[in-house]
Design brief:
By secondary structure, the protein is of the alpha/beta class. Helix content is 34%, strand content 11%. It catalyses: a uridine in tRNA + S-adenosyl-L-methionine = a 3-[(3S)-3-amino-3-carboxypropyl]uridine in tRNA + S-methyl-5'-thioadenosine + H(+).
Length: 314
């Protein structure tokens, strides 16, 4: 995947390189979510298939990634870094055409705040940016947007003693909005007009489907040991915190000693939107956001296969 001189030493890239050297990824049979056919003589792989977390999802074909994988690493046209599939520095595709990658529209805007010491190659946040480019923005801390005047329409997904569930978001944000409306009665007319306009926007297209005023969701992209500096930033203190309490990670680099409810960034975004669709918009979920896991699901299968080939997965 890369020349020895510019090897990117992330776990998944090392495993993928090992797989290439062992020819385990050069078979013509698709490895994507649309075809999980595995030798019936290998019971351990059949067990892995049985617990495959992505079965049943409505994912686009991974054929394009399989072809790109056989081609190997290419240089990013923007930074000239050696990459496969996408450049995690420039948030651009590499060796893959844009029209071959699924694109989805999200019901809310997503802000991802990345810790400056988080290794770019280890982050799954880029997956969201590639699949939903119009709705996802990635910031590097300490660069954080100003949310002070948007507390009635923005939430922060992060566990904590005061966090609420996705189901409680609508009620909590409406209470914030009502308090703000009461306070605005004491303000000069220009400020009241501005607030009324913001409230009307919050109840626009999405508001016609639901009473939920949510417009933007903030996620922190960092190892759990590095989150304290970001989560304690005063610019985030006023935001309603939301916790995804019932979801479990299937990330291949799960941090030792942390509970399995600590999700990778792309998992957190996906599960939040799925719950939001059902519990806040009150709509049946029919796979609208499954393709957020397009890259993640492919890498999951690829890396588990590489681990098994290397004898690191029973």
């Amino acid at each position: 995947m890369a020349s020895k001189s510019d090897r990117i030493t992330t776990v998944e890239e090392n495993l993928l390189k090992a797989g290439e050297d062992n020819e385990c990824f050069k078979e013509k049979e698709p490895l994507g979510s649309n075809s999980f056919r595995i030798s019936t003589g290998d019971s351990s792989l059949r067990n892995e298939q049985a617990i495959q977390p992505f079965q049943g999802l409505k994912l686009a074909s991974h054929n394009v990634l399989e072809r790109a994988q056989l081609t190997g690493r290419l240089k990013c046209s923007k930074c000239c870094g050696s990459r496969m599939f996408y450049c995690y520095t420039c948030f651009s595709l590499v060796g893959v055409n844009q029209e071959e990658i699924p694109q989805i529209k999200l019901p809310v805007k997503i802000d991802i705040i990345k810790h400056p010491n988080e290794t770019d190659g280890k982050s799954t946040a880029v997956h969201a940016k590639l699949i939903a480019p119009d709705d996802v923005t990635i910031y590097t801390y300490p660069c954080i947007p100003e949310y002070e005047d948007k507390r009635h329409s923005v939430v922060l997904v992060f566990p904590g003693p005061g966090s609420v569930t996705v189901e409680e978001i609508s009620k909590q944000l409406l209470e914030v909005s009502q308090k703000r409306s009461s306070a605005s009665l004491e303000e000069p007319c220009p400020k009241r007009a501005k607030h009324d306009a913001e409230l009307k926007d919050a109840q626009g297209v999405e508001g016609q489907q639901s009473a939920c005023p949510l417009q933007r969701v903030v996620f922190i992209d960092s190892t759990w040991n590095q989150t304290s500096k970001i989560i304690t930033d005063e610019r985030l203190q006023a935001l309603l915190q939301v916790e995804l309490k019932t979801r479990k990670t299937c990330f291949w680099r799960h941090q030792k000693g942390s509970p399995d409810t600590y999700l990778a960034t792309i998992e957190a975004i996906y599960y939040f939107l799925k719950d939001y669709h059902e519990q806040c918009l009150s709509q049946d979920y029919q796979g609208e956001y499954d393709n957020l896991l397009f890259f993640y699901s492919y890498l999951h299968q690829l890396i588990n296969k590489a681990k098994h080939s290397a004898g690191k997965l029973n």
